[in-house]
Amino acid sequence: MDAEISDITKALDKELTDVKDLKQLELLELHYLGRKGKINSLLTSLSRVEKENVKSVGAQINTFKKTVQGKIAARRKLLTAELTQSESIDVTIPGTLYPHGSLHIVTYAIEEISRIFERLGFIRMSYPEIEWEYFSFESLNMPPDHPARDDFETFFIDTPPHQKYGKMVLTPHTSSGQIREMLRLKKPPIKMINIAKTYRPNWDATHVPMFHQFEGFCVDTDINITHLKGTIEYFARTFFGPDCKIRLRPFHFQFTEPSFEVDITCDVCKGKGQIGGTKCKVCKSGWLEIGGSGMVHPNILKEGGIDPKKYHGWAFGFGVERVYMMKKGLNLDDLRILYTGDIRFLEQF
Amino acid sequence: MNIKITYNWLLEHLETNADPYEIQKYLSLCGPSVEKIDKAGDDYVLDIEITSNRVDCASVMGIARECQAILPQFGKKAIIKPVHLPMLNSFNEQNTLPLSIEDPENLINRALGIVLDSLMIGSSPEYIQKRLESCDIRSLNNLIDVTNYIMLEIGHPVHVFDYDRIKTGKLIFRKARKGEKIITLDKKEYVLDEHDVIIDDGTGRIIDLPGIMGTENSVVTERTQRVLLFIENNHAKNIRRTSMKYGIRTEAATINEKHPDSALAETAFIQGIVMLKNLAKGKEASSVIDLNHHKTELKTISVDNRHIASLMGIDIKPEESASILERLEFKVVQKGDALSITVPSFRSKDIAIEEDIIEEVARIYGYHNLPSYIQITGFIEQPPDIAKSQTTELKTKYFLKHQGFNDVFNYSMISAHDIRNFKLKIEDHLKIANPISNEIEYMRTSLIPSLLENIVTNQGRRDQFHFFEIASVYLGRVGELPEEKRVLAIETTDDFYSLKGYVENLMLEFHINPSYVPSQNIPYLLPNIQTIINVEGVKIGALGRISPEIIQNFGIEHDVYICEIDFELFVKHAQTTPTYSAIQPFATIKLDLTFKKVPPETYSSLIEKVRKASNKLIDIEYITSYQDNITIRCYFNDHSRNLTEEEAKQELENIKKAIS
């Protein structure tokens, strides 16, 4: 037995030195320690050993088995350590490039705005972008010749006017959706967010002829100014960040009474209106205007077939691009580039 | 509109301890927004935005009134200093020169006139010149400066005629006759029509375009010795119509079109007489004429204070509401919650209903003092089709983005040029009646022209393009609003199969199973490189290569592949919950098959035959094609047991027979 063990040991030592990788080592291990391996065949040969020696020879084989296991384990450890060191690449070479694409910032803005209001139970609706004058003006308390119509310079469509509803216009604001939503539902509660394309005949450094607005509209029995404030504050905090504050300033719109303009704190000067003694270039005295709002005028509720004695409501209309461009860190101040289709702009988002 | 006033000028009418910046801050919170303050010597110029309903604020006096209501709310003193003006009837002693004012057609609300004689024309005192110039008004001479000064101070436009140039001493308001001409004082000629109101001197000669601008033939000149100081309070709508029609947007017109108070006209008039006497040594030379057709009747509105409190969302005591209103010069009789409120004359046009009163109380109380809550309301359901459409649109956008496409937003309007280049008919497009550029004159009926322009814009910036847009196109209908149809267009410069692959992938994403039917009649695509996309036998879109003629028309240097999909139909077929098919426990055997396609046979017609030839064939995978040799991989499976290789080969043989 000693001789056999000695032969196996010699062979094992040689083979272990020749083993180059873990796979070979695994084969070697099988060859010695496997079911049909050399150690097992030694054990099988025990049957030929004289009875009184079986115990000691058995013990000898077992000791030898442990030695073999130990040698293999040691070799494995060494090989693993070698492999760990030898595998090497330049990890600074860029990874495989996959298609990336981009979404327009208006898409992101609409998604985010919809989600914010969805959490308050507001539903997003869509209403015509080409409308009758009646829905864009008369029904919103702006009769023909009214100076307030000046604030909404309007594109008209070259088509015969409707007998009842007047000329066809490209919606200069999203407020026509208020009337449409009231007529659809007939009865409060109404909680709508209407996001749509709007159009005005202005095209210069700070205006584009087409842009997007979002209109919030809420009508129910006990709605008051504090709800408008609360909702806009929630929007501003969620959209612009937890430090954002709002203020309502008195204003005038024909379709709300009272009417407010909504300002948020300027993020550039942190609402101070100045940076190191010089006037902030971005805002007016620490505040940035984000749009108009107010309590729904009783005439508008009546136009929508809703009893203004029983119900009150609030509404606001903000510019989608405008609010998105006010976001911290975006650093985008050119409105026109949004609609140029310039790939160098698009692919950044 | 914006007005400018100065701080020192305001202090002449207001006793206050508020500095200009405090005024800016507090007024902006509760009243007119003071947008800017500029220092001018020892004075400050306040640039103030006046909303169209608050023309009563558009003056030093108007702002003083707002200060009186607002500043005490912030613990600041603000008391209007009383002005002691003579009464109108105190000027009636002299009666030497003839003057008559007639308005037979009832075209104005009020007119006031007086002739002043022996005037010394010259420059105004320095403080007047400075103030006018601070407020962006050029100082001319004392006579003209007085009119502008009063307009800024009191808020009602004022005019002076050269009395001698009127010749007749008569002023008759009438409608112009169509074709009548006038030359305004800035020497521009206008041809009037029957809607315009003018002043005739009784001989048929027009001597004024009232409320808007004086005429060249009656204005004050350097030789003027006698003036007619004249104020008329006009019908706002007429002023607006005429002023807008001819584009004569004077300060006077922007005020007169907003219903200034006719009682203010009297104040301005008296102030005018006093100033002309003081500054130009004028003497009254006629009686005062006051033609007052429409005396403003003071209206009274009853408001329940509980209504005020409920719309403000707070408990506000009726006494506090009353006190705020009184500071705004409303007269209030309060009995418990019942407030009976008399509206001052200068607010008669903008205060009409309870809500107007609530706005006054709420803004002075301060919106910043109101708490913020989120309303608790009932549930409202979004119509399911709208919900699905919005979700699908957003998912589609993200999907295409992750496939490497760039989402573009193009204008809904395109040029006639693009319509022609794309070989569409101009008359199929809604046209903008008042376009501002021929680039954006027609409403799109297809997204493709814009997407082609996107490539033109970016040519040279990248080698390949992958754009998409989801937007509405506008299809005109007779007598009703156009159909606004949602469309998805996908564009690439890769090749046909690349685009088709993207489209197939998109369909797979939404579990839509379309068929692609060769087509030849989509005019903008190459006749032999185009296919219709059908779902359940209905066309939902098309894809193919843009015809070389259109490519040349647009000046594009690439081959362009386009897919246009009716997005509403796409949404309809999109599945949010796909059907699960149980995983087969039995072995699937894969065998490749190469066959030759003989035109006019198509791949899809052959595949159809392949499918029919074996009921063990569960799937077919396209592997490759070379010329007309096509290799596919067939997947065989039996639902109830393991197929043997031999059985599968037999199935393949059956297929071979079927297509040979």
From TrEMBL, chain A:
Which residues of the sequence carry a binding annotation for Mg(2+)? E257
The UniProt entry, under CDD domains, shows: PheRS_alpha_core
Cross-referenced InterPro entries, in alphabetical order?
A: aa-tRNA-synth_II, aa-tRNA-synth_II/BPL/LPL, Phe-tRNA-synth_IIc_asu, Phe-tRNA_ligase_II_N, Phe_tRNA_ligase_alpha1_bac, Phenylalanyl-tRNA_Synthase, tRNA-bd_arm
Q: Say which domain of life the source belongs to.
A: Bacteria
PROSITE patterns assigned to the protein according to its UniProt record, in alphabetical order: AA_TRNA_LIGASE_II (PS50862)
Q: Which GO terms describe its biological process?
A: phenylalanyl-tRNA aminoacylation
* Name under which the protein is recorded: Phenylalanine--tRNA ligase alpha subunit
- Record the organism: Candidatus Roizmanbacteria bacterium RIFCSPLOWO2_01_FULL_38_11
Subunit comment for this entry? Tetramer of two alpha and two beta subunits.
Q: Name one GO molecular function term.
A: phenylalanine-tRNA ligase activity
Q: Where is the Aminoacyl-transfer RNA synthetases class-II family profile domain?
A: 113-326
For this record, an example GO cellular component is: cytoplasm
**Where is it localised?**
Cytoplasm
Question: Which family does the record claim for this protein?
Answer: Belongs to the class-II aminoacyl-tRNA synthetase family. Phe-tRNA synthetase alpha subunit type 1 subfamily.
Q: Which gene encodes it?
A: pheS
TM ranges are: none
| Keyword list, A-Z | Aminoacyl-tRNA synthetase, ATP-binding, Cytoplasm, Ligase, Magnesium, Metal-binding, Nucleotide-binding, Protein biosynthesis
UniProt lineage: Bacteria, Candidatus Roizmaniibacteriota
- Which EC number(s) does the record attach to this protein? 6.1.1.20
> Which cofactors are reported in the record for this sequence?
Mg(2+)
Catalytically driven reaction(s): tRNA(Phe) + L-phenylalanine + ATP = L-phenylalanyl-tRNA(Phe) + AMP + diphosphate + H(+)
From TrEMBL, chain B:
Q: What Pfam families does UniProt report for this protein, alphabetically?
A: B3_4, B5, tRNA_synthFbeta
What is this enzyme's catalytic activity, as reactions? tRNA(Phe) + L-phenylalanine + ATP = L-phenylalanyl-tRNA(Phe) + AMP + diphosphate + H(+)
What EC number(s) does its UniProt record assign?
Answer: 6.1.1.20
Per the record, the major location class is: cytoplasm
Q: Which cofactors does this protein require?
A: Mg(2+)
Cellular component terms (Gene Ontology)? phenylalanine-tRNA ligase complex
Keywords in alphabetical order, please. Answer: Aminoacyl-tRNA synthetase, ATP-binding, Cytoplasm, Ligase, Magnesium, Metal-binding, Nucleotide-binding, Protein biosynthesis
Which cell locations does it reside in?
Cytoplasm
Tell me the NCBIfam families matching this sequence.
pheT_bact (TIGR00472)
Annotated family: Belongs to the phenylalanyl-tRNA synthetase beta subunit family. Type 1 subfamily.
The protein's name is Phenylalanine--tRNA ligase beta subunit
Source organism of the structure: Candidatus Roizmanbacteria bacterium RIFCSPLOWO2_01_FULL_38_11
Taxonomic lineage from the root: Bacteria, Candidatus Roizmaniibacteriota
